[in-house]
Structures are given as structure tokens and as C-alpha cells.
């Protein structure tokens, strides 16, 4: 069975900017489960990026490089922030819960990184507008 039919949210970010992704879950069922953010390498492999610790205060963030994660267990919202986006950050990611070795996907997110276009590349007005003296 292919994962293609599953809902994938696409998030766009500019190179150098930040994006935030919220993954919601049932706080009663899943608040104490370990939550993680991973990057899909192929069909079966999701490479771990960062985990939110259990019993973690919601305002404290766990960080790995430019990616941070925080878990609001009262509202059931896991927030992942990726800063200073680079082209290599693009790809398919998952928010997951891990419990007794079993992983469940909360949300699949495709991150698209757009190259910032410098303003100097915007077509300029024709230069024939100079006043004739």
C-alpha cells in the first residue's frame, strides 16, 4: 500500500526564513507519548530530527540545529519550527508519536523551500524615460 493517498500538507518557506508547523493530537490519549519530527528518506525510513520529551514544560523547546520542537500537552499541539531554511531542508517530514516501539504518524508535511529572488532581478522600467533636456 502506498502512502500517497494520505493527506500531506505542503508548507512553503523562503530560503533563510522560518516556518512553523502545528501537529494536533488527542491530549488525553497521547499527551505522555514521546513525539518526534523526522524526515522521510524513502518509503520505509524516516530519519529522526528532534524529539519532544515527555513531562516537558510547553514553553521549553528541544532543539537540533535550526529545528526546534515544543509540545503543549494541555491543548494537544506539537509545534515544530525550522529556522534559516536551506534548499537541503526541503522534503517530506512527519510528526510522530512513539509508544512502546510503535510509531504513529500525526501529520505528514512536505516542506518546499523557495529561493529568494533579489529585488535587483525585478524587470526595471524602460530606461527611455529619461527627461529630454
From TrEMBL:
One of its GO terms (biological process) is cell surface receptor signaling pathway. PROSITE patterns: IG_LIKE. It comes from the Eukaryota. SUPFAM superfamilies: Immunoglobulin. Residues 15-112 form the Ig-like domain. Pfam families: V-set (PF07686). GO terms for cellular component: cell surface; extracellular region; plasma membrane. Monomer. After ectodomain shedding, the extracellular domain oligomerizes, which is enhanced and stabilized by binding of phosphatidylserine. Interacts with TYROBP/DAP12. Interaction with TYROBP is required for stabilization of the TREM2 C-terminal fragment (TREM2-CTF) which is produced by proteolytic processing. Interacts with PLXNA1 (via TIG domains); the interaction mediates SEMA6D binding and signaling through TYROBP. This is Triggering receptor expressed on myeloid cells 2. The lineage of its organism: Eukaryota, Metazoa, Chordata, Craniata, Vertebrata.
Amino acid at each position: 500500500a502506498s502512502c500517497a493517498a494520505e493527506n500531506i500538507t505542503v508548507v512553503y518557506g523562503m530560503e533563510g526564513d522560518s516556518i512553523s508547523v502545528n501537529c494536533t493530537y488527542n491530549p488525553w490519549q497521547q499527551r505522555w507519548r514521546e513525539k518526534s519530527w523526522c524526515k522521510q528518506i524513502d518509503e520505509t525510513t524516516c530519519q529522526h530530527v528532534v524529539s519532544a520529551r515527555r513531562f516537558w514544560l510547553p514553553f521549553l523547546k528541544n532543539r537540533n540545529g535550526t529545528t526546534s520542537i515544543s509540545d503543549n500537552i494541555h491543548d494537544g499541539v506539537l509545534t515544530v519550527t525550522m529556522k534559516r531554511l536551506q534548499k537541503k531542508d526541503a522534503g517530506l517530514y512527519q510528526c510522530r508519536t512513539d509508544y512502546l516501539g510503535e510509531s504513529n504518524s500525526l501529520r505528514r508535511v512536505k516542506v518546499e523551500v523557495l529561493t529568494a529572488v533579489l529585488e535587483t532581478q525585478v524587470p526595471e522600467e524602460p530606461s527611455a524615460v529619461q527627461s529630454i533636456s
